Amino acid sequence: MTISERSDNRMMNGMSVDVEDYFQVSAMAPHISRDKWDAIPCRVERNVDLLLKLFDDHNSHATFFMLGWIAERYPGVARRIVAAGHELASHGYGHLRATDQTQDEFLADIVRAKKILESVAGVPVVGYRAPSFSIGHANPWAFDSIAEAGYHYSSSVYPVQHDHYGMPDAPRFPYHSRNGLVEIPITTVRAFGRNLPAGGGGYFRFAPYVVSRWAIRTVNEKEGRPAVFYLHPWEVDPGQPRIREANLKTRFRHYLNLTRMESRLRRLTSDFRWDRIDRAFQVDLN
Ligand SMILES: [Zn+2]
Q: pLDDT per residue over 196-213, tens digit each?
């Protein structure tokens, strides 16, 4: 048996990228007003291209949840994502948390993003991820709106305890939420009687890589389930301008280990098999 045949037996996992730029991150929002966005130099194009190359090197595919704001300004990025065989999905228009919007505002935002992405890239957009995993017990109506807007699935829940997001008691694996919409949560691992993050975020850069590898292996091999991992283009960009106004905790989380991210991602893409969420979770979506 050759190595490539053997590697085909490994479980297929879902890889995802939330396409927003460094100054659009929710934790930075209090320090950068939205009307300044157009005046700030974007780094997203360079960083998405780097990720496209990285996934291509490792024969992997991913789902790119892109902001409508980015797709309007960088339509070529959306088209290159599609041309390389990845799934184009929606991260809403302007990176407003669902929890900061009324149901009407939320619906308008996600309908607008879907239209822009589909017209720019010429493909149907069926997946949606809420900015900062901002769907929880306070706003279960968001699932109704996502279905109403015509999306087939959401990947908006991280079942962990975190100061900015998280729904620790949500199911850990794909489930039908309101309106029959399929929710595909970010992966956690059970340890010490709680859900620990295993699907990316600051944790992936903070803890040694072997912790993430152990966590994903545990989910794949002991639980027999595929994992969902996520990252942002700015995480592979150690040269991004620093936002000095943010507080120490935000800066620590945002800038930690950026120089190590690309090599860690290369290990992650070698150690596991990755595909677009719509393909890796085809069973749950049908
Ligand atoms: Zn985001």
A: 999 998 889 889 999 999
CB atoms within 10 A of CB 34: 13
What's the rounded Cα separation, in Å, for the pair 43 and 45? Answer: 6
Checking phi first, is residue 95 left (phi over 0); if not, alpha (psi -120 to 50) or beta? left
Structure tokens at 201: 């975020």
Cα 20 to ligand 1 centre (Å): 6
**CATH number of the CATH domain containing 32:** 3.20.20.370
Cα(18) to ligand 1 centroid in Å equals: 6
Domain count, the chain: 1
**Single-letter code of the amino acid located at 267:** R
Spatial distance between the Cα atoms of 257 and 261, rounded to a whole number of angstroms: 7
> Ligand 1: distance of its center to the CA of 91 in Å?
7
What confidence tens digit (pLDDT) does each residue in 72-107 have? 999 999 999 999 999 999 999 999 999 999 999 999
Question: The whole model's pTM is what?
Answer: 0.95
* Helix 44-57 / helix 258-271 crossing angle, nearest 10 deg: 30
Where in the sequence is the domain holding 241, given as residue range(s)? 3-285
